[in-house]
Design brief:
heterodimer; A: mainly beta; seven-stranded mixed beta sheet; four-stranded antiparallel beta sheet; 0% helix; B: seven-stranded mixed beta sheet; 11 strands
C-alpha cells in the first residue's frame, strides 16, 4: 500500500497569511494526488485533483503542485472560511490512501 | 445538483450486521463508480471500498475484506454497503462518494455521512 504523510499535523495562522501544507507519498504516484478540505461535522470537499487542477468553484487562492512523491497545497491568503482540516489522497492505485490531515487553526 | 444521501447507520452489537444505503440524484448514477469512505470519531479518513459504474469490479480495504460487501442498484440509483461481523473498530461515520470521471479521478461529491456505532 502507498503511505501518505502530511506535514505539519497542525498549523496556526492568521487571516491573510500564506499557508503551505506538504504531502509525501511512499512511492511515486505521478500526478495522481488529490486535496480535500473538511470542516467539523461536515463531509470532505474536493479542492484540487491531479496535483494542480482546481475543482470548479474553488477559490483561486488555493493551489497545488508537485509530482512523483512530493506535493504541496498552498493557500495564498488565508480567509476566515479556510480554517479547517486538509487531507491529501493518492489516486494512483488501490487501496486509496489518505494523509493524516493538517488542521489549520486561528492564531 | 448532485446529491448523495446516506442512511442505515445506528448502534449495533459486535458480530452483528448492518446495511448502509446511499441514494443518489442529480446525475446519471449508472455512469459513475462509487466509493465508501469512513472516519472514526476524531480520526482521519479511511477508504473502504469502490464499485465500478456497472458493478463489474469491486475493491476493498484489507480491514474490511471478507466482512463488507459493496453493491449497487442502478435502477434505483442506490449504492449499498453490507457490513457483517462488525467490530468495535468499525465505529465511524460512513460516507458515500462519487468517483469523478476521466482518468484516475477524485472523489468529487460526498454525502453527509451516517454514523455507525458498534458497541455492546
Amino acid at each position: 500500500d502507498i503511505q501518505m504523510t502530511q506535514s505539519p499535523s497542525s498549523v496556526s495562522a492568521s487571516v491573510g497569511d500564506r499557508v503551505t501544507i506538504t504531502c509525501r507519498a511512499s512511492q511515486g504516484i505521478s500526478s495522481w494526488l488529490v486535496w480535500y478540505q473538511q470542516k467539523p461535522g461536515k463531509a470532505p470537499k474536493l479542492l484540487i485533483y491531479a496535483a494542480s487542477s482546481l475543482q470548479s468553484g474553488v477559490p483561486s487562492r488555493f493551489s497545488g503542485s508537485g509530482s512523483g512523491t512530493d506535493f504541496t497545497l498552498t493557500i495564498s491568503s488565508l480567509q476566515p472560511e479556510d480554517f479547517a482540516t486538509y487531507y491529501c489522497q493518492q489516486a494512483n492505485s488501490f487501496p486509496l490512501t489518505f494523509g493524516g490531515g493538517t488542521k489549520v487553526e486561528i492564531k | 445538483q448532485v446529491q448523495l444521501v446516506e442512511s442505515g447507520g445506528g448502534v449495533v452489537q459486535p458480530g452483528r450486521s448492518l446495511r448502509l444505503s446511499c441514494a443518489a440524484s442529480g446525475f446519471t448514477f449508472s455512469n459513475y463508480g462509487m466509493h465508501w469512505v469512513r472516519q472514526a470519531p476524531g480520526k482521519g479518513l479511511e477508504w473502504v471500498a469502490v464499485i465500478w459504474n456497472d458493478g463489474s469490479k469491486k475493491y476493498y480495504a484489507d480491514s474490511v475484506k471478507g466482512r463488507f460487501t459493496i453493491s449497487r442498484d442502478n435502477s434505483k440509483n442506490t449504492l449499498y454497503l453490507q457490513m457483517d461481523s462488525l467490530r468495535a473498530e468499525d465505529t465511524a461515520v460512513y460516507y458515500c462518494a462519487r468517483w469523478g470521471g476521466s482518468v484516475n479521478p477524485p472523489l468529487d461529491y460526498w454525502g453527509q455521512g451516517t454514523l455507525v456505532t458498534v458497541s455492546s
